Hints:
The protein is mostly helical. It contains six helices and two strands. A hairpin with a 2-residue loop joins strand 1 and strand 2.
Amino acid sequence: MADRYRPRSAVQRTREGNPSKTAIREGVIVPRAILTEPDWSEVFKPSPDPAIEAANARCREVASVEWQRVVPVLEVATGVGEVDHATVKDLCVCVARIDQAERDLSERGLMVTAERGTVKNGAATIAGQYRTQLARYIRELGLSPSARTSIRPPDEVDGESEIWD
């Protein structure tokens, strides 16, 4: 179920209609843009340590795949603009870091041996924190099934037949 206390975006209000006839401020409507994929080597920097470089290379790959999967959908469905670039980039970083933490959990397990004995693997905590942040991004960008129920596709304009034509 959509969050009834969270206001709908201006694009969503315009698309769905404005039954309350409340004025939609022009400054709120973000011009649509085609987002360019960031240079992931700036986020996940190359490292001289082979183990860290392998993890960072995988993070770059996972983030890039997520960007290519999500951005085309967002550009069509929600009307993301250049101002949303950082949010989408952070979403991809969260996905890459969750992948990294899950790989560590698979390799070392949930419990690891430390100075004080067997303790919980820190990657479990990190994965949980990234999942919480990812859930926020998913809700904000309308990427979950419940968030999508409140977003309607744009109506045909000026005789345009299909959005994919």
